[in-house]
Amino acid sequence: MNLLRSDYGKKFSQKGNWSILLNTISDVNKRLKFLSDDILKLKDFISTEYRLGEIWIQNTEAWLIKIARWKSRESKSKLDSKYKYLFNEKKLQLKAENDEKNRIAVAKFKCEKTLIYNGSGIELSKEETELLSLGLNFCVAPKKFPLVEHIAAIEQLCDVIQEREAGLSTRSQAIRNLAAKHMKRGSQMKIRSNITSSERNAIKSLQVKAEKREIMVVKADKGRATKLESEQSYIQKEANQIQQGDYKKSKNLRKSFSTT
């Protein structure tokens, strides 16, 4: 969970914003005090050095205040327009994120959900359970077009065709040209993700648990279901099935078992 989105994060952010606001107000008051002192010194300097009248000084001060207010309104207008621009950008970004989440949710709703039987003793999060309910055949969309895998598969196919056609490369070359055209189009295609960021983190969490041998994700014997077991219990069940069954060791070179 994102710390800034939690209740503690929101309170901390509000407290930080309030502290920044108080510091800014204090800094502005200090600057105003320094400016008022500088203005008084300037008035004394003008009246003593240049011997200008009080009316001239007041008119000059009014003129400077007028210019300062005009500059302030201009700066405020620029800040308002910048704020509106950033607000609209943020609004469009949030709308795009919500649309993407709705698209992924609709796509997953069309998938047939499978039951999850957790016999591992490890508690799963909500995101991990929802991800496993999509089934073991669910594929995560790649971040970019798998160009290298496509080239390797096409070359393997063309080599098989050349061997069968006794070296005639006309058909295999046509396949290469057609595949190159489609791969060029596919490499420029933007691939949209079919899972959310929280589900991507759930995949990493499941991978870590599997690497630590805490869980094993297997298909259930009956029905469209996914089963989670610990590695120790899974190996024990296999050993029990072998001991209870009527098996004999095969004489083949490959390590396998055959029924009597």
What is the residue-mean pLDDT, rounded to a whole number?
Answer: 76
So how many helices?
A: 7
Shape: elongated
Q: Biggest sheet, open or closed, and with what strands and sense?
A: 3 strands, mixed
Derived structural class: mainly alpha
Name the helicity range: 55-70%
For the record, give the distance between the C-alpha atoms at the N and C termini, rounded to a whole number.
Answer: 55 Å
Helix and strand succession?
HHEHHHHEEHEE
Strand content: 5-15%
Q: Stretches where pLDDT falls below 50 for ≥5 residues?
A: none
E-strand count: 5
Gyration radius over CA: 36 Å
Please list the strands of the largest sheet in the order they lie side by side.
1-3-2
Short description:
With 260 residues, the chain is mostly helical. It is 67% helix and 7% strand.
Provide an overview of this structure:
This protein is elongated. β2 (216-219) and β3 (225-229) form a beta hairpin. 67% of the residues lie in helices and 7% in strands. It has helices at 7-50, 54-110, 126-132, 147-164, 170-187, 197-211, 231-244; strands at 115-118, 216-219, 225-229, 247-249, 257-259. The longest helix is centred in the first third of the chain and has 57 residues, at 54-110. The mean pLDDT is 76. A three-stranded mixed sheet has the order 1-3-2. Strands 4-5 form a two-stranded antiparallel sheet. It is mainly α. The chain is built from seven helices and five strands. Among the domains are: 113-138 and 195-260, no CATH class; 142-191. α3 (126-132) crosses α6 (197-211) and α4 (147-164) runs antiparallel to α5.
